[in-house]
Design a protein that fits this description.
Layout lengths: L3 H15 L3 H8 L5 E2 L10 E8 L1 H6 L3 H13 L6 E2 L2 H10 L7 H6 L4 E14 L2 E19 L15 E14 L5 E2 L6 H17 L5 E2 L14
Length: 229
């Protein structure tokens, strides 16, 4: 038991200094910071444009969801200095000028980007359909990426005198459940707008992990809410 005392004291000190955030505690207890590689293609030294889409029913319930998802997703990509991302406000202006866009690569051409990423929200809920008296978030986002590049000759070298062609380079889904430990009662003091913002942040983070590596500590669920209301 005496041998456990120093460790217990260290854990207690970390809990005090980190504000009981389990992710921070997990970080300090690791012998080294390990990362989880992204399953998607590398965006290193690429210029990227991000498009988000959701159906009318989802947007009626959550106005601005497309815009907010893109902003947070782009914010995560910009943490990696070797990735250039088109400003979401400029993309928003482009969407207003092309409200019926169907070909995402047109945005890549107009912004002279190398890659266009499409985040299509197929589901976004803050309450469980079977019990509307609790907060239980769920989301499903279809993630696609297309790259524009010059065709190559018989030797595999790009023919820069020819127009760039589109190639699908990634297609996957990101499904999120929050909180994983179970629903939050509506009378807990956590307002639905606050819960929705937290859920959106988590969804954006998990979508971005398809393209950028992240720390193992990021996998630990953070159920703290700032500005409960």
């Amino acid at each position: 038991m005496r041998r456990l005392a120093p460790a217990a004291l260290a854990v207690g000190l970390l809990l005090t200094t980190t504000g009981c955030d389990p992710r921070t505690l997990f970080y300090f207890l690791q012998p080294y910071e390990s990362t989880i590689p992204a399953p998607g293609p590398s965006l290193k030294n690429k210029k990227v444009v991000v498009l988000s889409a959701a159906d009318s029913a989802t947007l009626a319930q959550f106005p601005g969801l497309e815009r907010d998802l893109s902003r947070q997703f782009v914010k995560n990509l910009r943490k990696h200095k070797k990735i250039t991302v088109v400003d979401p406000e400029k993309v928003s202006d482009w969407i207003q000028g092309h409200p019926n866009w169907t070909d995402p690569t047109q945005a890549a051409r107009d912004f002279e980007a190398d890659v266009v990423i499409v985040l299509e929200v197929e589901q976004f809920r803050t309450r469980h359909p079977g019990d509307l008296n609790v907060l239980q978030g769920s989301s499903k986002v279809h993630i696609q990426a297309f790259e524009l590049k010059h065709p190559t000759n018989s030797k595999g070298k790009p023919m820069t005198d020819q127009e760039k062609e589109s190639e699908a380079i990634y297609d996957d889904y990101c499904e999120t459940e929050f909180p994983r430990r179970g629903p939050i009662p509506m009378d807990s003091g956590v307002g639905e707008p606050t819960f929705k913002s937290k859920l959106l942040q988590i969804v954006s983070n998990e979508c971005s992990w398809h393209f950028v590596e992240h720390a193992q500590a990021d996998m630990i669920e953070d159920v703290r809410f700032h500005g409960r209301g």
